[in-house]
Amino acid sequence: MSALGHSVDLTIIWAIIIAFGIFAYVVMDGFDLGIGLLFPGFKVGAERDAAMNSIAPVWDGNETWLVLGGGGLFAAFPLAYAIILPATYPLVIAMLLGLVFRGVAFEFRWRDPGHRHLWDCAFTFGSLIAAVSQGMMLGALLQGIQVKERAFAGDWLDWLTPFTVLTGISVAIGYALLGATWLIGKTEDEAQAHARRMARWLGLATIAAMAAVSAATPFLNYDYWRRWFDMPGVLLTAQVPLLVFITTGILFWSIAKGRQRLPFLSALALFLLGYIGLGISIFPFVVPPAVTIWAAAAPPQSQLFMLVGTMFIIPVIIAYTAWSYWVFRGKVGEGYH
């Protein structure tokens, strides 16, 4: 195998690994961020405690995938890392501060009951900042980053546009839907009924947000338009909105029929379809519209060295994550900690 062919193969493998890590983070941290966003709507007392207890065993482990995604990007695609971070520094800082607020509020809420209201506000505020920042980072990447001589060449506030605001709000709404559907499967009685009511409205809001982002994205770049609407590719890309329509029907049917787990799985499927749509739009670019995954990749020797370690690390992460979810399966209620 030639050096070029070897490099291309490793680059694609690493692109898949990074994509998997980012999606795993969205799946696993999305619902607990969503619970933070919904927290003010829960009744003070048992309902809020049940919502918090439903994520208590897993919330900090969920963020392992954020470390894997960010660290993997730095190691496997250093040029992309060096461009994306300067272009989105304010958003990255805001996201990390939001996660800090969440973590501190989560721990001190139980240890300082005299100021529980303040910690609840911090939990919601941190969740909102983190969710919106992540959505705006996605929007900033989609709309394109100015690159000159392999470096970020834009302005400090290039990330702040109507489109990034739209994506920030959309991601927050989607996370809230994940949180509501998660609580359907983890709570009982009135708390569960409340979660179902929220899930119905948030389902409608999520579909509207997905439609708005999908309608705006092809107009950002002609390449996006071409990938979605040129023949014969449109015969394949048209399956994504069709699957979104089917999944939406399953989501609302499962909520109406009182299903326990299917609403959450349907919401995850909507996120997966949106993620596939993002991949269709930007591939093979890692920094649209200037830098492809091959241009941003580390040397093949470095990729191969890291891949050996990653082959052991990822299965371990998956194993302990699955075990923690299995151990803490089932409902939560008043009195559980």
Quick gist of this model?
This protein has 337 residues and is mainly alpha-helical. The protein has one domain (3-327). Helices cover 77% and strands 3% of the residues.
Protein described:
The chain has 337 residues and is mainly α. It has one domain (3-327). It is built from 15 helices and four strands. Strands 1-2 form a two-stranded antiparallel ribbon. Helix 1 packs antiparallel against helix 7 (116-143) and helix 12 (239-256) runs antiparallel to helix 13 (262-282). The relative contact order is 0.15. The model is unreliable at 1-8 (pLDDT under 50).
Key traits:
globular, 337 residues, disordered N terminus, two-stranded antiparallel sheet, mainly alpha
* Total strand segments: 4
Per DSSP, the total helix count is 15
Give the CA-based shape.
globular
Strand content: under 5%
User: Largest beta sheet: what is the strand line-up?
Assistant: 1-2
> Taking all residues together, what is the mean pLDDT?
84
Element order: H for helix, E for strand: HHHHHHHEEHHHHHHEEHH
* Fraction in helix: over 70%
Largest sheet: 2 strands, antiparallel
Tally the structural domains.
1
Low-confidence spans = 1-8
Our measurement of the CA-to-CA distance between the termini, rounded to an integer number of angstroms, reads 56 Å
Radius of gyration: 20 Å
Structural class: mainly alpha
